[in-house]
Amino acid sequence: MPSMNKVQLIGHVTRDLELRSLPNSSQAVTNFTVATNEAWTDQAGKRQEHTEWNQCVAFGKLAETCAKYLTKGRLVYVEGRLRTREFNSQTQGAPKQQRTEIIAGRVMFLGKPEAGEPNEGDEGEAAKQ
What we know:
By secondary structure, this protein is mainly β. It has one domain: CATH 2.40.50.140. The chain has one helix at 60-69, and strands at residues 7-13, 20-21, 28-41, 47-59, 75-87, 97-109, 120-122, 125-126. It has a five-stranded mixed barrel. The radius of gyration is 17 Å and the shape is globular. 19% of the residues are buried.
């Protein structure tokens, strides 16, 4: 039976992005966090809220487009897949840590566009307007 690994979310970028290159490669990469909010009323009638901090990563041309146009507070749509990776802790003797990220394949810039900004970045290519 086939499987599917797909994530879609709309939220706000939590900080300005920085573009860098992967070690031993010239491929561009940028990491960013998208905050998504959920609100509900509990059984006692009290309003509850929860914020999820979604770690995202984009590569190549998509990373370049995101780093150029996404800024802190910007509303954004991200579509991609989940990937969990293991890495060594910076603390001597600490166990390996895991981090689950959304590998972005499509990013749409929502809200009021800036001058010259594309509507979205898709699979490493800036979409044509």
